């Protein structure tokens, strides 16, 4: 599975160079919406890798190699998790550096909330993409991801995250874990070489 993730990073590297710059520039603006949008946007990178795979018929080659369906499916989830974590860390780093100059504070709970929302959006959309392919599954994940990013961004801008009780905030990571526990087996069942 490590080789599959490495292949995806090689494929995405040219896009990711610009992507890292965009993340840094948008994280400079002190906006909850930008953080949520960037992290959830990173959850779409596995779909980009899958689109390249479909275009080059890599899935057919993978079926002839010693990769199991489990390895192929899990590699897309891990790629999404790694990209979201990297975006969250870049947002935190940018806010910490700029916090010294602009006297603004870094709110880790916003990044953690964004990560949970990104994981949930990945969990909701990836099974459909595994089943129908990137082109046909595109509408599903666009609606879910942009809806989640917009809705969560506006809600989080309106709500003071630190004032939300801890038990309520604990439900979001639990929801992300539950969604992942359902999504991965479902994706393995629905995965087919297109």
Topology (elements, then pairings):
Elements: H1 2-28, H2 32-42, H3 45-55, H4 58-64, H5 69-102, H6 108-158, H7 166-190
Helix pairs in contact: 1-3, 1-5, 2-5, 2-6, 3-5, 3-6, 5-6, 6-7
How many E strands? 0
Strand content: under 5%
> In one word, what is the shape?
globular
The biggest sheet, with number of strands, parallel, antiparallel or mixed sense and barrel status, is: none
Q: End-to-end span in angstroms?
A: 20 Å
Low-confidence stretches: none
The total of helices stands at 7
Helix fraction? Answer: over 70%
**Helix and strand element order:** HHHHHHH
The assigned structural class equals mainly alpha
Walk me through the structure.
- The chain is mostly helical and 194 residues long.
- The chain has seven helices and no strands.
- The protein is globular, with a radius of gyration of 17 Å.
- The protein starts with a helix and ends with a helix.
- The mean pLDDT is 80.
Task: Quickly describe the structure.
This protein is an all-alpha fold and 194 residues long. It has 7 helices and no strands.
Descriptive tags:
globular; 7 helices; mainly alpha
């Amino acid at each position: 599975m490590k080789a599959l993730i490495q292949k995806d990073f090689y494929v995405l590297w040219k896009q990711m160079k610009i992507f890292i710059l965009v993340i840094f520039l948008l994280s400079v603006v002190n906006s909850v919406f930008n953080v949520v949008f960037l992290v959830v946007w990173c959850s779409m990178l596995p779909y980009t890798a899958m689109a390249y795979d479909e275009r080059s018929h890599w899935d057919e080659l993978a079926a002839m190699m010693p990769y199991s369906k489990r390895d192929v499916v899990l590699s897309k989830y891990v790629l999404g998790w790694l990209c979201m974590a990297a975006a969250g860390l870049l947002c935190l780093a940018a806010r910490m550096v700029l916090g010294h100059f602009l006297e603004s504070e870094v709110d880790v709970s916003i990044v953690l909330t964004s990560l949970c929302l990104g994981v949930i959006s990945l969990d909701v959309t990836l099974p459909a993409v595994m089943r129908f392919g990137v082109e046909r599954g595109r509408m599903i994940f666009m609606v879910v991801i942009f809806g989640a990013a917009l809705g969560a961004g506006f809600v989080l801008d309106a709500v003071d995250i630190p004032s939300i009780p801890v038990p309520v905030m604990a439900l979001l990571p639990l929801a992300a874990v539950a969604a992942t526990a359902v999504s991965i087996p479902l994706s393995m069942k629905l995965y087919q070489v297109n």
